[in-house]
């Protein structure tokens, strides 16, 4: 009898930039520029999320719900502070690093402004999760120091469990709500993916890193597979909400 081969379950050994720390990787100017872009985009995303959650708290039907969203908003702001401080630590002006991404992110939030409490919850769960999936994919190609920071600020602030509980309860109470929220989530998916692709396309260093320039082992075909994985994860989240993808 042969012994089962479990080597496929072992984590792949990191190579290239992903096997280096920041001091080593930052000697490549294009990689450094890509990381500054990435941290700038993330920082403004966290700041915008803080503002949005604070605003959405006004739609909360109960005081307990309002407090829960306020707690999530506070967590987003702390994530922003970590990214801001890291940019300053590596000699970059945080506001300048964020500026290129303001128009795209503000545009996304304008186009997907929720009309009620439930739409706000679905947006926080679905929209933020899509963005997090995208950044986690990118993080796998980063140096160890930057990767650790990015993954830390992508930690769930409580959106997932809270949103699933509230949305499923609302659908159980009034099933027809599910159809409206499913359409809303599909719109969020399309807008979020378009925004991610625009951000990458508009920033040369970041796009080069993704398609195999300074980041090893990443090509155009892999970019396509990355977005397929993000779409698959979205389908699973929709199921968790009790909605059809």
From TrEMBL:
InterPro entries: Ferritin-like, Ferritin-like_SF, Ferritin_actino
Pfam families: MiaE_2
Domain (Ferritin-like) ranges: 29-213
Protein name per UniProt: Ferritin-like domain-containing protein
Origin organism lineage: Bacteria, Bacillati, Actinomycetota, Actinomycetes, Kitasatosporales
């Amino acid at each position: 009898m042969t012994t089962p081969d479990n080597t496929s379950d072992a984590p792949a050994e990191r190579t290239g930039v992903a096997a280096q720390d920041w001091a080593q990787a930052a000697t490549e100017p294009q990689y450094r520029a890509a990381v500054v872009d990435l941290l700038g985009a993330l920082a403004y995303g966290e700041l915008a999320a803080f503002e949005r959650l604070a605003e959405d708290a006004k739609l909360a039907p109960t005081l307990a719900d309002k407090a829960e969203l306020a707690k999530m908003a506070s967590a987003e702001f702390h994530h922003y502070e970590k990214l801001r401080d890291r940019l300053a630590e590596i000699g970059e002006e945080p506001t300048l690093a964020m500026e290129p991404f303001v128009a795209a992110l503000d545009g996304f939030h304008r186009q997907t402004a929720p009309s009620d409490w439930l739409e706000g919850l679905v947006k926080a769960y679905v929209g933020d999760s899509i963005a997090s999936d995208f950044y986690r994919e990118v993080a796998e190609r980063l140096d160890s120091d930057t990767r650790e920071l990015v993954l830390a600020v992508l930690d769930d602030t409580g959106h997932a469990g809270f949103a699933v509980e509230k949305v499923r309860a609302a659908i159980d109470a009034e099933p027809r709500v599910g159809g409206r929220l499913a359409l809303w989530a599909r719109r969020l998916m399309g807008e979020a993916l378009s925004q991610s692709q625009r951000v990458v396309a508009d920033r040369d260093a970041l796009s080069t890193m993704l398609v195999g320039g300074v980041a090893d082992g990443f090509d155009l075909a892999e970019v396509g597979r990355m977005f397929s994985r993000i779409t698959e994860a979205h389908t699973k989240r929709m199921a968790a909400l009790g909605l059809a993808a």
